[in-house]
Amino acid sequence: MYAQMVRSDAASVRSIEEMEPRERAFQQRIDEGQKIEPKDWMPEGYRRTLIRQISQHAHSEIVGQLPEGNWITRAPTLERKAILLAKVQDEAGHGLYLYCAAETLGISRDEMYDQLHSGRAKYSSIFNYPTLSWADIGCIGWLVDGAAIMNQVPLQRCSYGPYARAMVRICKEESFHQRQGYDILVTMCRKGSDQQRAMVQNALDRWWWPSLMMFGPPDTDSVHSAQSMAWKIKQNSNDELRQKFVDETVPQAKYLGLVIPDPELAWNEERGAHDFGEPDWNEFLAVLNGNGPCNRERLGARRAAWADGAWYREGLMAHAHKRVAGVAAE
Ligand SMILES: [Fe+2]
Ligand SMILES: [Fe+2]
Q: What's the whole-model pTM score?
């Protein structure tokens, strides 16, 4: 998920009988599948949880451009370069839609940027890993965008209108991203040299476990899920989505002739699903808390971009003030 650890401000989910009348009416609307819109009354916890989730999601889209941006100048052909450029631009667009959706809940964009730049806001742990070869770009599209789709398709039905609507276009673009990644790998694995195939296997070995971590901690440790589920901000549990991702990805890896780096991975006839090993949750927490291989670099790049753009933002404001002054003088 692009928002892996969202606190929901609720120790436990209250029953409908325990709620005051307007909260009860709000919960009933959600239960009936109605959308909540920005001007509707909503519990403070719902508002704060959504702000956290949508802004984490937005930050992830923006920071997520950095690992791939590294390869725009190194793409192997002009066509691959144009495709990657378009993909990275899409991610900027996703970030901007989502900042807009969060703004409807009463937080300003400056505040969200400040939370990111000061290190108070989180973004997906996956973007703190380095992109060492061109095969990494294929793996990111295939696995990272693939995991994002798995998480984001249900969000199109989330209870908050602006978030749900933003997800519709985002999901369409994510499926293009996933295919472009897989296409890179098909070319390398099925038409490439042994060396290229080895490059892809090496990339898969590095990206597999961090991709599984994108779904967040196991359900047993995921203390904030129940309230988010009741509010329909979240519709599936972390483990459910992780399972779905593994089941869909295994045959795709087989087609490429790759080995998933998990000795416990096996088809379970009884469950009709794959059994698989446990990601290293200590690594997940370390990366989430700022100690992954590229956390400092990523945050440094965002801070520098913000500082470098100051003259431009000031210019726009000066121009806007001049225009307002001009209108007032007429
Ligand atoms: Fe995206
Ligand atoms: Fe994407």
A: 0.92
